[in-house]
Design goal:
The chain is an alpha+beta fold. It is built from seven helices and eight strands, in the order E-E-E-E-E-E-E-E-H-H-H-H-H-H-H. The strands form three sheets. It has a three-stranded antiparallel beta sheet with strand order 5-2-7, with no helix packed on it.
Length: 273
């Protein structure tokens, strides 16, 4: 699955002049709702279909007939130094190549030596600092914080809890194609921006008690931010520092997890509407 990076990223318009291929494109746009998803289309000389692959997509194809002629039209020049690729059979992408449908034996596939050295999708995400923020991500960070608890690193728990909230708020803001950079580092402003963007206070279906509960989240978020700023291991403030006990650390962690899960639910529900 090929693509070019940076300024040499390419959009392609492809078609088959002779024979047939199964053509596949993978969305590699970092903030796209379909990131890591793929689309397939069969192109052949009879259906005369053309397939447009936008920039920041990986592209690959399976030849279905001998002597197939495949035509590319690209909007940018080929640049070997910017070229990269992801394995065609990556387990995380789990692309359905329909080999059985086309009567193709996997052992008979002809794959170039260069393509055999392509990276995995996990490697691609690691290189590009991409990680999905969802319920699994929250659980992952929770496990890291629990390790800190076991080691009596309660200040580390507070730092991770605050970081989780900030990342959730930034993620939600970015999903609305807005830039949270101006408020990064100020968790109260990030939460206020999140509330405004997702109209958390405007839901007419909310009962008064639920509305009060949501309103109280601001105080909790603000308190977690202040505890982290004044007490955690991210700031050395000498004699002003107050020790954090285990039950305090658990309270901060559990509060941040509950709020984060609620925010993820808001983001997911917004996608459906």
């Amino acid at each position: 699955m090929h693509f070019q990076k940076g300024e040499y990223s390419q959009a392609k318009l492809v078609r088959v002049l002779k024979g047939a291929v199964l053509d596949i494109a993978i969305d590699l746009r970092k903030n796209s709702e379909t990131f890591g998803k793929y689309v397939t289309v069969e192109l052949n000389e009879k259906n005369k279909k053309m397939f447009f692959i936008p920039r920041n997509f990986a592209h690959g194809f399976l030849t279905l007939e001998d002597n197939t002629e495949f035509f590319y039209k690209c909007d940018n020049f080929y640049n070997p130094k910017s070229e990269a690729g992801i394995m065609w059979n990556d387990k995380d992408l789990n692309i359905e190549w329909n080999l059985k449908k086309y009567g193709i034996n996997e052992n008979e596939l002809i794959i170039s030596e260069k393509d055999k050295k392509n990276m995995s999708f996990k490697e691609y995400k690691k290189i590009n600092n991409i990680e999905f923020i969802d319920f699994n991500y929250i659980k992952k960070l929770e496990r890291k914080a629990l390790i800190d608890l076991e080691k009596n690193n309660y200040e580390g728990v507070v730092t991770k809890s605050r970081t989780l909230l900030e990342e959730i708020f930034c993620y939600g803001i970015e999903k609305k194609n807005m830039n949270p950079q101006t408020n990064k580092g100020d968790i109260n402003k990030l939460f206020s921006e999140f509330r405004q963007i997702y109209k958390m206070d405007e839901d007419k279906n909310l009962g008064e008690r639920i509305r009060k509960l949501i309103s109280g989240l601001y105080s909790i978020v603000s308190a977690i931010g202040e505890i982290r700023n004044h007490n955690s291991d991210s700031h050395g403030i000498g004699t002003q520092r107050v020790g954090i006990l285990e039950h305090h650390a658990r309270l901060v962690l559990n509060s941040s997890i509950i709020i984060s899960e609620y925010m993820i639910s808001i983001i997911e529900n917004d996608k459906k509407n």
